[in-house]
Give the backbone structure.
Amino acid sequence: MPELPEVETVRLGLVDRVVGRAITDLRVGVFSGVVGPLGVDATRARVIRHRIDGIRRRGKYLFFELADETFVMVHLRMTGVLQITSRSAPPLRFEHLAMELDDGSDLRFADQRKFGRVLHLMPKEFVVLDTAIGPEPLGSDFTPDLLASRLVGRTAKLKSTLLDQRRVAGLGNIYVDEALFRAGLHPERPAGSLTSTETAHLRFEIQAVLREGLLHRGTSFSTFSDAYGGSGSNQDNLRVYGRGRRGDPCVRCGNPLALLIVGGRSTHYCPRCQALDPQSGVRQRGEND
DNA sequence: TGTTATGTTGCCAT
DNA sequence: TATGGCAACATAAC
């Protein structure tokens, strides 16, 4: 569930409650794999007694900066949840880990599908990961030229390329489908085939859908919730995601939306507004509306 | 009751 | 290196 807007919503909800607090203990449940190969005891030894100086987000990754310049990385993957609770609150459903903070609160991690991770990283490990992740799409440097440079020469499908976190950070299945619809681009276009006009349009719509998602505190279907267990409302603003299967009418042209599998992912789009061949006789988006 | 789908990513084969 | 397929897991919905 969590893509960039959801992860940022979680971060914003945590900052005031967590920054400046020290970690006094680490509790891990039966699924010890949540802390990765380092293991529970070593992870605990590395985090306790350290103060949290800040929370950074890169793409869909969260990094809690500890006072010794190491990091606790959290990735929610599909169904992860991070929440602030009181120490005495009952366990969350699927709770795997809790960081006990020095003000009597807990920072808890839960994950139904056990894909998510909470890993302690040394400074060097942080740099390696940070460097491998592509540019932030909401950063001021995410210009049309920068996006073009990430797509040029690629023969892979546009959607698959946008989902590759090394090319651009933070996009997932929902926001990619929404951005491609708004930009009028077919998800299976070769990524390197876009004109500079199409690339500029795509950059604009990527930023638009992410900002809208952020404004609505994320898209909540079954499992996404913020740091306090609250839901976002962006699901009410989606134009194509989840609608292809039902063949709902396109909000732009009225023709039925369709479902396609691209790179193994369900892909919702409008075959008319997002033609694979731009010469198919359909007026292109942006010409007159 | 069985089958299928799910917002992510890493590993493996080509 | 670039690309594509699939597994990791638990549950909900059909």
Notes: Strands of chain A lie at 23-28, 52-58, 61-66, 71-75, 80-86, 95-101, 105-111, 117-121, 258-262, 265-269.
